[in-house]
Amino acid sequence: MQIYQYPSPEGEKKISDTIERGLGYTQEDYNNVEAYINDVKKRGDDALLEYTRKFDSSAITLENLKVSEEEFNQAMETLDDSFLKALDRAVAQLTQFHRQQKEKSWIDTPRQGVMVGQLVRPVDAAGIYAPGAQGGKTPLVSSVLMGGIPAKVAGVETVILMTPPMADGTVNPHMLAAAKKVGIDRVFKAGSAWAIAAMAHGTPMVPRVDVIVGPGNIYVTLAKKIVSGTVGIDMIAGPSEILIIADNGANPDFLAADLLSQAEHDIMASAILITDSKDLAIATQQAVKMQLQALSRRDIATPSMKNFGAALVVPDIGTAINLANRLAPEHLELVIKEPFECIDRIKNAGAIFIGPYTPEPVGDYIAGPNHVLPTAGTARFSSALCVDNFTKKSSLINYSREAFLAEADDIITLAETEGLDAHANAIKIRRQG
């Protein structure tokens, strides 16, 4: 992790390179994903099984593609109490938070004889994608929770989960326990672009869904990008990122640990510290070097910190906040003396973590807010995954004859201004009646 003075040409280049690093895919990647999608669309379950057997498990058949009730029961029996306790807490706290997001339908009578309103309805079916890290050996339980809970809170009738099987054709029991607790209706053993394709277009075995959410590798991300418009998606997510604003009162060991918590995700993950204290930047740099040695994923975290990690020393915290708004980070930590005084100046961030005892991982697992967040600067215009992703809104309009006549002339004027005579005539013909 290199230290830069800011403002400086070198510091500015580091900021620009971070903003512009993109998704990191090639045209070949895009073409491959498009081919997978088209094949699943054409051949359905046959294509889905072929790719799953080729890349994940030769034990998968049409008969065991869907997780059985017996598999769910066996999974629950194998898990220890400490995991189930943590899972119950996470489910409860995430559910409580997401219930606050649920919107209600409403009706208003703004003018005599006029009724307008909005119907808020859940989509019929949603698909959750959860990656199978390291062949399913490190289950991404939180992906099941973050996708499934807001869908269920929204009232989606059918929620399915797609996740790659382990080599023996089973799904990690921790994943199945999470799906059971959340209330996922069906779980299928398939991953990557072909799983996204199956959910987007449907197969004889896999129901077609209306919305697909969840993280994944570049093939999953590209597949979601391609099917977007056929179905709704949460977002096009890039590599993970964290930005920490800290002053001289911060603990450098804490900061280093938090930077590395994102660097271990991906060799393209971004981990940046912005501080008004050069001494803190140097101390954090040394702490990163020390902590890296003990990480099991140091082969990932090391190049991430080398290429996309940095400490920027700025004149004051105000400059740090301006840079944060420009970077629009996925995760923003405020480790400064008076963090709440700065919150109203933060314009762009996926999630804001306040104070020294609110590290980013509490949001990843258990705090309540969703950890599926906008990346690559898209927090400038988009938000975390939420209940709204699983609902749609229909407008309600009703006019009495008297209210219609009172506004008819203005409607005709606007329609004729746009050259839409048939629109105007739909008003005129009623006014004459």
From TrEMBL:
Its EC number(s): 1.1.1.23
Pathway: Amino-acid biosynthesis; L-histidine biosynthesis; L-histidine from 5-phospho-alpha-D-ribose 1-diphosphate: step 9/9
Cofactors: Zn(2+)
GO cellular component, one term: cytosol
Broad EC category: oxidoreductase
SUPFAM superfamilies given in the database record: ALDH-like
Gene Ontology molecular function, alphabetical: histidinol dehydrogenase activity; NAD binding; zinc ion binding
Biological process annotations from GO: L-histidine biosynthetic process
Residues annotated as the enzyme's active site: 330-331
Record family assignment: Belongs to the histidinol dehydrogenase family.
NCBIfam families assigned: hisD
Function as written in the Swiss-Prot or TrEMBL entry: Catalyzes the sequential NAD-dependent oxidations of L-histidinol to L-histidinaldehyde and then to L-histidine.
Protein's UniProt name: Histidinol dehydrogenase
Organism from which the protein derives: Desulfocicer vacuolatum DSM 3385
